[in-house]
Amino acid sequence: MENINILKEYYEKDSERFWDPLEGMCGRDLDVYPLLEGLSGQLIEYGCGSGSLLIGLAKEERFENCIGVDISERAIAFIDKAWKNIPNVDVNKLKLMNPQSDSLPEISIESMDVIVSVATIEHVLDPYKVLDELYRIAKPTATLICSVPNYAYLKHRIQLLFGIQPRTGTDEPVSNWREEGWDGMHLHTFTKSSFTTLLKDCGWIPNKWMGCGTRFNSIGLGYFRRKFPGIMSGELISVCRKRS
Which residues span the domain enclosing 128? Predict the structure, then answer.
């Protein structure tokens, strides 16, 4: 429990920087949202953070019910307040959860159509347990969309070649990580290959990979992020189906 409490303390503080979810989707949301085209039904976002993506999806009629899960009580309270302040929404459509562990006992087996987890798996204590739990609650036809930092990004490879610690979760120098949390409290590192192995071990089959970000798209980097995400993107997005 001590480790969980350390994480909760960190993310309660981290939630202070979150933006207003009613301002709309931004950042990674804009990379993930197009991947949700054609999906509908029961949706859960594991690690909903500021709630900008979750609230945007909850407002759409194609999703019947939505669940947001986050370790931060402050973040959950902020999302709840924002949702209830939106005119003419069904306040009961969005359920928010602040679990004390990686388990989700309140959610029934094979009940979710769409599962989203953006920049979260690298933060949890046990990624196997989390992905196993997401498998448990997923319907046989469910889609999982998740993203993680890419340790094999070309920039990171060059840094490692020169003995420099890659920064995947913060812009702060390593000398400030005592206050910031080690690399933004990223507990795990992934490459496209290792994340594929993890997903498959937990019953998820990747159907599509994408890179994340818009920086330097004007000079063509966006094309290479999409074409070669395993090396040209600092973050990987995987769209997965549940193995039968």
Answer: 2-152+189-242
The pLDDT tens digits of the residues spanning 149-203 come to 999 999 999 999 999 999 999 999 999 999 888 999 999 999 999 999 999 999 9
The domain that holds 111 is classified in CATH as 3.40.50.150
Lookup result for tokens 């359920």:
95
CA–CA dist 47, 42 (Å, integer): 16
Distances (CA, A) of 148 to 41, 125, 171, 195, 209: 25, 14, 17, 8, 11
Decide: pTM greater than 0.85: yes
Interior angle at CA 109, CA 237 and CA 243, nearest 5: 45
Structural domain includes residue 223: yes
Enter the tokens of residue 24.
Answer: 């709309």
User: Cα 117 to the chain's mean position, in Å?
Assistant: 3
Q: Establish if 183 belongs to a structural domain.
A: no
- Asked if pLDDT for residue 1 goes beyond 70, the answer is no
